[in-house]
Amino acid sequence: MFVDSHCHLFYDDYKNDFDDVLQRALDTGVHAVIIPGTDLQTSMHAIQLAEKNDCVYAAVGFHPHDAKKADDASLKKIEELSYHRKVVAIGEIGIDYFYDFSPKEKQQETFLKQIKIAQRRNLPIIIHERESRNDILRIIEEEINNGNTKKPKGVFHCFNGDETMAKKVIEWGFYISVTGPVTFPEKTNKPNSMAAVVKKIPMHHILLETDSPYLTPAPNRGKRNEPANIPYIAKKIAELKNISTEDVARASTFGVHKLFGIGKYPEPVFTYQLRNSLYINHTIRCNADCIFCNRKGEAILMGQNLKIEKEPSAEEIINSIGNPGKFDEIVFCGYGEPTIRFDVLKEIARWVKQNGGKTRLNTDGHGNVINHRNIVPELQEIIDAVSVSLNSAEKKQYSTLMRVNESMFDAMVEFSKQCVAHKIPTTMTIIEMDSVDELQAKEFVEKKIGAQFRGRELF
């Protein structure tokens, strides 16, 4: 299930086949669309379309091209329209210096006034930015730091910024919306192209959009765009990030729910699929409290809710797996430390192995301390591979990042050495952060532990 988070279906391009356009979208799995206005008239038109169609939602606002028309009376009317039950955002708003359709000062003024409308209404903003990055970011940052308890939130539509800009807006909590050009072959390998940036952006900050009727993705490039083309964009993102199209759909749809309030919050799950692997989420308890972990927050991963309210039995999990052989592997990895429920882990893993499946344990490496014995020999026959969260080769930094006693570093190292000694294929990972010395960690893993090393992207 997809959402087209930005399409201008009020244009005359769709006057004669609007219903067919919506039906094609539904037929390809696009279950909702958001139509942003660009001035007062089109904002009202967007609302009219939303009133007539359950799957259509509207945003209201003045596009930077039309900022010259945005007087106080018009902006007051925009705020009044924002109370409509199908209006989910203030947009499309922003600054565009590529064209000279409205004076720069007027664009900045109108953008700021509409941000304040959104703050008063507790609505997200849909931002248009073209050759105006410095002013856009300055205005937003000033609003973030002005002491208002309702901070700006929203999405950078049709994002064309570089990795540095992407990182900055994500740190503010904004989303990045990906459009058709990500599918263009000639742009895929260019530094700071949309494709290159998308590879770096976490899926939980990505939305999908067509910007119809513009920016048609391959293979339909050159034709009128429409929401039914969203799956082409999702497929390309999946290819770039080495995940499944279903992962992209689920994660981006949850992003739309979180930002715009469209759809339902996902129910908690204790098994979840990523790519062709099935993950076991049998506890959210953990002896560590990593600074980059969302266990105590929403515990959402790729749009899947891992915040289970009760810990499932081994039988419940086994019944939910089905045929383990149809997956590449069964992975013990949730938002908790799997070895905390070691007996349950062993029962499930033993059953998986007996029924033709492969297993992997993702762990913080503290299982020996947690269980007051060396558990590695018990893993030897039931776990095919182990992945240990190293996070840093420096004991003090490790302790700070994971918020554990420094002695746990030694426990993790000994556990990893035991895995290698028992000939269990072992990988040790770090989160790629500026403060962590990746080369030092790689050398530590390969030379002192004898394991494989892998860096995992935080951004």
Characterise this structure.
- The protein is of the alpha/beta class.
- It is built from 16 helices and 17 strands.
- It has helices at 18-27, 40-52, 72-81, 104-121, 133-144, 163-171, 194-200, 230-241, 245-260, 314-321, 342-354, 367-371, 376-379, 395-402, 407-421, 438-449, and strands at residues 2-4, 30-36, 56-60, 87-96, 125-130, 154-156, 175-178, 206-208, 271-274, 277-280, 300-301, 304-305, 329-332, 359-363, 385-389, 426-432, 452-457.
- It has an eight-stranded parallel sheet with strand order 1-2-3-4-5-6-7-8. It has a seven-stranded mixed sheet with strand order 9-10-13-14-15-16-17, with helices on one face.
- Helix 2 (40-52) runs parallel beside helix 3.
Question: Secondary structure elements and their pairing?
Answer:
Elements: E1 2-4, H1 18-27, E2 30-36, H2 40-52, E3 56-60, H3 72-81, E4 87-96, H4 104-121, E5 125-130, H5 133-144, E6 154-156, H6 163-171, E7 175-178, H7 194-200, E8 206-208, H8 230-241, H9 245-260, E9 271-274, E10 277-280, E11 300-301, E12 304-305, H10 314-321, E13 329-332, H11 342-354, E14 359-363, H12 367-371, H13 376-379, E15 385-389, H14 395-402, H15 407-421, E16 426-432, H16 438-449, E17 452-457
Parallel strand pairs: 1-2, 2-3, 3-4, 4-5, 5-6, 6-7, 7-8, 10-13, 13-14, 14-15, 15-16, 16-17
Antiparallel strand pairs: 9-10, 11-12
Helix pairs in contact: 2-3, 8-9, 10-11
Condensed summary:
37% of the residues lie in helices and 17% in strands. With 459 residues, it is an alpha/beta fold. The radius of gyration is 25 Å and the shape is elongated.
